[in-house]
Request: fold
Amino acid sequence: MSKFAAQLEETAKAMVAKGKGILAIDESSPTIKKRFDSIKIESTEANRRAYRDLLITARGGNQYISGMILFDETIRQSTSSGVPFPKALIDQGIMPGIKVDAGAKDMAGHPGEKISEGLDGLRERLAEYRQLGARFAKWRAVITIGAGIPSAACIEANAHALARYAALCQEAGIVPMVEPETLMDADNTAATCYDVTERTLHELFNQLYRQNVAMEHTILKVNMVVSGKKCPTQAGVKEVADQTVRCLLNTVPASIPGIVFLSGGQSSALATEHLNAMNAAYKHLPWPLSFSYGRALQEDALKTWAGKSENVEAATRVLLHREKCNSLACLGKYSADMEKAA
Reply:
């Protein structure tokens, strides 16, 4: 049992507080460059800071957002008024988190598969991040669906890395968010996504137990059970909700404080609709179902901002609208009519 047990419990509960979710603003340098390319602005340190300042200081966001996942650069930056970003979040009652994996790299001996790196030196990095204000961390593993993949070796290696990362987090007094993402980029059916997600989660919890990770101080971030983007027949909202909940009930211990979904390339509205359908239909699950979206929360705000300071107010309104819709989806109270009213 970690000497930080009480604090870890408090943080984990707060992360999945009723009607609240996590905003992921931890895009790596190549990813944020792609986002900025889409609005035709340069990915400079100053532009990245200005954009993340907008996301972090959005007044009223603390009604819907319990935590934000930061990138290494971001946790060291400050608001335009000079307040360090982690302090600016804490002052609003939002918990700072930090992405700590070093990215998904090609897995040796396994063509088409990835393994997330970053365990070397992680203990020391976690100690520094905690001093900088981080209260939770994130590690993403990537599971690719394709011809003959994912292999058992890929699933096992990624689950093992996630478990070792989680143990180091809890030792440091940081709540681990474990994120095994089954990608939705292929032409697979939702049934294939179900099978791969189920296999991955079984192996993940196996490895977490082996590494003595406390389930009650761990948050699961996972994909929904959806059809691959290139699949000619897309699963409907009800099917996605039913199959996702079934998969989670079959694999996730009841002692996990909460489950947050990644959007994984779904449109902003569809990610909200799927989350809402689960919470509307399943009222008595062992854990709350919430969100930890990046693009599905940010995309509209990014376009509205377009790199111009005069657009900050309008972009903030757009961001708060998306946050509010997902907050209501956590309660099963979202309606598509809310999109027209925006």
